[in-house]
Recover the amino acids of this structure.
């Protein structure tokens, strides 16, 4: 086993860096592609900052995506056993599976997110966005996260799952509890407790919903998952509920931040925003650049199946490594002027949706929602501007998003 130094640990997940991680990313890029990062308690992890290495690690079969148990490591050892149910429930999510289970399920689930299926949702997304913006008066002060960026993605994913909109607030609260646990590398016992309770309640909700839906299947994602479960040995009943929860969670917690982070970035760049307003055909490349510039998912993790060498460092079997997607998206070796926003950026190979077999299944949907929401906001409200001091970022480092975004419309 190689000797690992735990001196030279670097602090990254501090409140101060959270408010603006980019100067630190720039400095760490200059120092090297791999850093040993403190994640609270006694725990530190090797973290990859380089774009090329993050992309190749995400595709490397020597690394496993099964890492739900590792999420408990920042909790005191004596308390970890209380959350074995939390780790077990999360381990059923597609994102935490390895082949061959992952391959079989992903292939079937792809049907629900094909470009054709997602494109057919465009008119519906446009109608929902128009309805939400119709009620907003020009010149009025609005908290954009609460009024728009938060409710839109959850509304759409609930429609796709065929769940009544009245339950939206309950879902948002459950989803938040899971996000605080997942997004914080130095998670606490309280975070774990809230996430475990939320997952238990969500599982119970989907147990009942699936029973009812079996009798009246429709054209929704739950019915697709039921078909997959009924067709063969790909999904157990419990795994079926777990995918419903994962889709609800992923459909909401990330896309809200694409819209929120994207709008905040545009409001700080009025010239680029004016250009987008005048040339709406730029919206596709603009959304890709916003995903790169303020990535909603700042890192993901993998566990080593074998001892391997990463960026010249031998790392032992069973250790976790972090792929710092948000930092990789500012890597000067990959992007020209990485800290500059360029809505026309060509060959934008950002890693905001990951890479390899776990590449985000919801990427076409997120792109659609982001394009429609952001373009309609900038076109309909040409005078939109930020209010007050800098808005505050939520403490979920991994899921980067604003607590609130006050604007004048
Ligand atoms: C801007 C919005 C989004 C971002 C930035 C994002 C980001 C990501 C990333 C980085 C991964 C890969 C993680 C890894 O390799 O460990 C991922 C996977 C995944 N995402 Fe997203 N996501 C977004 C929206 C969505 C939406 C709308 C859905 C579904 C409704 C979704 C569902 C999933 C699922 C199920 C996976 C796991 C795929 C697999 O393991 O094969 N995501 N996402």
């Amino acid at each position: 086993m190689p000797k690992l130094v735990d001196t030279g640990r670097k602090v990254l997940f501090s409140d101060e860096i959270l408010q603006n991680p980019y100067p630190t990313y720039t400095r760490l890029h200059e120092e090297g592609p791999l850093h040993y990062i403190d994640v609270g308690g006694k725990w530190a992890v090797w973290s990859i900052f380089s774009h090329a290495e993050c992309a190749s690690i995400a595709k490397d079969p020597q690394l496993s995506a099964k890492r739900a148990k590792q999420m408990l490591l920042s909790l005191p050892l004596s308390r970890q056993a209380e959350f074995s149910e939390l780790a077990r429930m999360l381990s059923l999510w597609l994102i935490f599976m390895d082949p061959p289970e992952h391959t079989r399920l992903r292939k079937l689930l792809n049907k629900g997110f094909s470009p054709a299926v997602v494109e057919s949702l465009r008119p519906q997304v446009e109608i929902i966005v128009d309805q939400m913006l119709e009620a907003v008066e020009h010149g009025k002060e609005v908290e954009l996260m609460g009024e728009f960026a938060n409710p839109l993605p959850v509304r759409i994913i609930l429609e796709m799952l065929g769940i009544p909109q009245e339950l939206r607030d309950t879902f948002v609260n459950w989803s938040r509890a899971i996000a605080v646990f997942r997004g914080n590398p130095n998670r606490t016992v309280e975070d774990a407790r809230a996430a475990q309770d939320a997952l238990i309640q969500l599982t119970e909700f989907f147990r009942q919903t699936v029973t009812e839906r079996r009798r009246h299947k429709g054209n929704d994602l739950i019915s697709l998952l039921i078909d997959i479960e009924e067709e063969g040995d790909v999904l157990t009943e419990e795994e079926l509920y777990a995918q419903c929860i994962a889709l609800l969670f992923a459909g909401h917690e990330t896309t809200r931040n694409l819209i929120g982070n994207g709008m905040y970035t545009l409001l700080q760049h009025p010239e680029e925003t004016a250009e987008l307003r005048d040339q709406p055909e730029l919206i596709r490349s603009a959304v890709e650049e916003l995903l790169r510039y303020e990535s909603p998912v700042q890192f993901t993790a993998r566990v080593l199946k074998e001892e391997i060498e990463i960026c010249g460092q031998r790392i032992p079997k069973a250790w976790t490594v972090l792929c710092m997607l948000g930092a990789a998206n500012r890597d000067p070796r990959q992007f020209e002027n990485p800290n500059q926003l360029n809505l026309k950026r060509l060959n934008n190979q950002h890693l905001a949706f990951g890479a390899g077999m776990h590449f985000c299944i919801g990427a076409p949907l997120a792109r659609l929602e982001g394009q429609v929401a952001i373009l309609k906001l900038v076109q309909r409200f040409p005078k939109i501007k930020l209010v007050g001091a800098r808005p505050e970022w939520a403490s979920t480092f991994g899921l980067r998003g604003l607590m609130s975004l006050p604007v004048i419309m």
